[in-house]
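#data-curation
PF: Archiving a pair of folding outputs for the training set. Convention for this channel: one message per protein, sequence first, structure tokens after, nothing in between. First:
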Amino acid sequence: MTKFKASSIALDIGTRFIKLVELKKKKDSIMLTKIGIKEIPKDMKLDRDKITSQLISQLLSENNIKSKFVNISVSGQSVFVRFIKLLQIKEDKLKQTMKFEAQNQIPFSLNEVMWDWSLLNKDKNASKRAVIVAIKKNLVEEMILKLNSVKLSAELIDVAPVSIYNCMAFNEDFDDQNLGAILDIGAKSTNFIIFNRGSVWLRSFPIAGERIEEAKDQGIEELLAEIERSIEYYFMQAGEDAPKEKKIDRFFLTGGGSIMESMESAFVSKFNIKPQILDPFRKLRISKGVFQKLEASGPKTQFSTVIGAALRGITDLKIEVNFLKEMISEKKYSFQKRLYSGLSIAMGVLMLISFSVFVRQDYYTKKIKLDKVEGMIETYRTYEPKIKKIREEENILRWKMDALYQTASSRAVWLGIFKAISEMMPKDVWITDVSGIISIEKSGLGRMDMNGKALSYQSVNIFVSGLKALPSFSDVRPVSSSVENDKNTGEETVKFSITMDVVLAGS
């Protein structure tokens, strides 16, 4: 039986705000006992890390938080996520199988990442589904150092979209047999979660609150187009497991950007469904001293991620991953090792005492046994160079596999890139020449050069703006443009060249 904690504290360090909550287990319910929010100044001249540390310290002080252990979540865009379907497998083989799957699914060496997994459905009679998540070790180390700077320690590091899904599943009554979706609109990124019959699918993209504030209606149109594209990706990847009718039955909106003006009406117009605002506090009890503070903290939807993270450890949740699981296991192993070392020393003392009692035992018998042990050690030493050589060959093969995986992945990406370009290209613009360079390095960056013609400079500018808005490109730059006359019709056309970086999957 799972042993739950009595209380839990979580931090959500976002782009614009830092949120803190404390939840406590009260018999058969969970109570919100502390809540706080601080806005991060937009002044680019300020040291963001320093300001963030100061604001976290203020939140801890104002809420009289004494515990040094917190749960946090990382952005979905920082995390590598894979969903897999497992054959019937025995419980004692599950961990070994998942490690094998992780080695095959994650495009990096497991030594370079922190990773974890969770079963999505626990029905023993059904085929098991699982999610594997991974993040580069240096990102986790940076987060731990930032928390240590304010005398905090991370007890759990979750994935933001997973925290949001857990928050929704805990607080909302929904029919898991129908296809549902959650749209979490943050400041710089949006998380899109689709769930159906215990199966979950996640995607994050960079069209979010700041883009919508900047581009107004066009920003909302870009967001809706990205949602539509995500739904198409889901049905394409789910295959036979997806519902026959390609329609979302229920939409939940959350995140600070979900309450923007015209968002609800745009949803109804685009998807013919009225979205439901997710209330992360719906099934929580709220202490009297916190209620007024909650009302003054702004939109409730901005607390979904931090509530989902705080629920970890004090109740059963749908998905439970923790990037620190391996690190915690290593600490436990280190403690056990020190314990066993102490016991070994104690045993050694007892043996010395016992030796004085049994000193008359046959010395030569012990000498023979010792010689046998030394012979076994010597045999092992002869095999040690061969083992070392095999390990070196294994590392070379892993590097080659990583390179081949990146190359294969990039092919699929180019198809998506050309489709995205064709969908947003103005009618009076056409491409005459495209060339690209694919990098197989783990940075996942490629390069594309494009030549084309248009009927006006305005069309070229619209095309360039559209390319910049696509998440597949960065550093989009027009290289040249000139006006030329068609030899046959005499009509003026604009000849142009554009160059850009291509952000490949897994970068």
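PF: Second:
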Amino acid sequence: MKVLVIQQRYGIGDMVIFLPYLHALSKELGCPITLLAKKSSNAEALFANDEHISEIIELEKSKDGLSGFFKLSKELKARNFDKVFIFNGSLRYFLLSKFAGIKSIYQYPLFISKDIIFQTAKTFTETFLKRAVSTQPKLRIDTKVSELSKKKLFMTEDFKHIILGVSASGPTKRWPVENYIRLAENLLKISNCKFYLALGKNDFDTEEKIMSSKIKEACFSFSKIGIKETLPIIKNADLYVGNDTGFLHISSALNINCVGIYVDSPAFSYSAYSNNIEAIVPINETIYTTTHNTLGAKNISFNEVLEKVKKKLNL
């Protein structure tokens, strides 16, 4: 049997959140799946060691528009898929599957919008499987690579290894970097710590502020390495603390304790799916009321973050 799954959201975090349902379908159908996904989701790097995902077809710009539609449908038709599972309500992907000659098509209700990402995916998958599916994602990485990374970066047990999630997909989703520096300074006063800066190549200003501060000697930056290279480092960490960004969801899927700081994104949708994530939201907000346009970066309690981090680290 050949099975296609379409998950077209852009984000790394989104892709991680869908992982339990990809695994569940693969296990139920007794075969690895092919995944159609955006390049920005970094699915290739995330799932490099996942036996349940055999191939990833990237949704490139050349596959947009009418000409792209026919180009992609031809590509899919050549693979002779038996089933397709479409994790969105887009008419385009329904028609694409029809043109590709896929006989069994399973899809969200057409034109669905404003869903709670993990709940809709869970209901959709469980309806097909007729059984419950856990919402907790589990990323697979090579244990030998993980051990080599641990030795290379001297990630020894006499230090607390903390991922600082200082990046985010937009400026309003970031807790100010000065707070992370202050947090690290406080932790260094009570414990030996090493900090791993979860940021990208476009986060130059944020990186510069941290590497110009008093904590610079205790920091290692992810800015010059790819997602695939960060996975074994995160796997060996003791804690993630930071913004609602892809690195938060990767950490959760690698079974790392996480303190997620939600200032301008749907806190329930992006935290309640995992027992590994403890959400912190702005003062006078809840995980249900914190969403887009909350704009709460200045209303996060520093002491709440510090105390929850200390508790997670047993300090």
